[in-house]
Prior knowledge:
There is one protein chain. By secondary structure, the chain is of the alpha/beta class. The chain folds into 2 domains: 21-354, Glycosidases (TIM Barrel), CATH 3.20.20; 369-454, Sandwich (Immunoglobulin-like), CATH 2.60.40. It contains 9 helices and 17 strands. The strands form 3 sheets. It has an 8-stranded parallel beta sheet, with helices on both faces. A 7-stranded antiparallel beta sheet has the order 11-12-17-14-15-16-13, covered by helices on one side. Strand 5, helix 5 and strand 6 (201-205) form a beta-alpha-beta unit. The two termini are 34 Å apart. One of its GO terms (biological process) is fucose metabolic process. Alpha-L-fucosidase is responsible for hydrolyzing the alpha-1,6-linked fucose joined to the reducing-end N-acetylglucosamine of the carbohydrate moieties of glycoproteins. InterPro entries: FUC_metazoa-typ, GH, Glyco_hydro_29, Glyco_hydro_29_N, Glyco_hydro_b. Pfam families: Alpha_L_fucos. Keywords: Glycosidase, Hydrolase, Signal.
Amino acid sequence: xxxxxxxxxxxxxxxxxxxxxxxxxxxxxxxxxxxxxxxxxxxxxxxxxxxxxxxxxxxxxxxxxxxxxxxxxxxxxxxxxxxxxxxxxxxxxxxxxxxxxxxxxxxxxxxxxxxxxxxxxxxxxxxxxxxxxxxxxxxxxxxxxxxxxxxxxxxxxxxxxxxxxxxxxxxxxxxxxxxxxxxxxxxxxxxxxxxxxxxxxxxxxxxxxxxxxxxxxxxxxxxxxxxxxxxxxxxxxxxxxxxxxxxxxxxxxxxxxxxxxxxxxxxxxxxxxxxxxxxxxxxxxxxxxxxxxxxxxxxxxxxxxxxxxxxxxxxxxxxxxxxxxxxxxxxxxxxxxxxxxxxxxxxxxxxxxxxxxxxxxxxxxxxxxxxxxxxxxxxxxxxxxxxxxxxxxxxxxxxxxxxxxxxxxxxxxxxxxxxxxxxxxxxxxxxxxxxxxxxxxxxxxxxxxxxxxxxx
Length: 456
Ligand code: FHN
């Protein structure tokens, strides 16, 4: 149990999860989409026949012998070519809707500092590209029109701003420059919330620099200001550090922010590690590429099946899964991602009940899949179909609920349930067998919806 043994001014300001309607909505999303888009989509991980050996959105930091000559100057001028003629926010939003995404996290500005909206506070923005039009506005409006909630990704790291420092400023000149950068950051954030009032939350990134970690008071004040300015705003645990430099969790172990934002490309092994906190997981389709990389051939690409498994893993532990997309420099979603989106959409259309508003079921995980639960419905998502065609459920007696009927969501087929007589086994469980149709030829995970009634 956590007690406030260390007095803190800039630690967590709340005990437990938020209980308001907006956060309840966040909890019910199940599936989200992340989009990383910026000028890094032009090189797509490659330049002059050379490949950058890292995440494509980091390509500006390419150095050493393998980097093209004058690389950073080249990169910093790429915006003059940014003209995504194929960009159609409504097309993206429609695809996300068909996929079954309930929220979007969109990169308004990544570490390179390029702002995809016409920011008054920098020249390094969409305004000065051949494209000119406000991309953030188009995205917010299009997704909102599809009923998808929009969260704005914002990187504190800004390689373009002259006042940005990664290390703690040591000289008076550096300190002044950094103060200027802090005001710039505040201005841009207020500008985003002013311009795009439909925003549901801010998704902060690039907050690990020593210089930023020292800004506990500034960041805490700013977070309060942003929340007051935009009531209901959702901000994760990645924004600020406390006065001892502790990030995500303050010096007393309490989470700072509305949900745990540390689950990046990984999922918790058990629900216990989460200690009841809200959380989501952001996941790349390749191992670690967020922005567009034109070469996906040299790494493992997660299948829709892999992602469905992860989605159920997340929801069965009260989390959301956010799948990342990296459109190309013209504004096209790559074909591989479109295929994956379509496959996920086919799945969510039939089986969405198992993920939207569904939560941890309070039961041990079956080896062949995941349980989720909503009201009196228990959903059993089968990832690995048992070869005998029988799903055995082990329900602890203490659960006080038992299955009354079962329906296979594909085709709405009623399934037979029998109670298994275990004789004197007495291990505390009651066992039930659900018989799958003999002709079930499932090539993707399938869901059995089980109505629960009180067990006396
Ligand atoms: O450095 C970034 C990375 O490029 C990407 O944006 C991810 C998304 O969560 N965040 C940072 C790494 O944690």
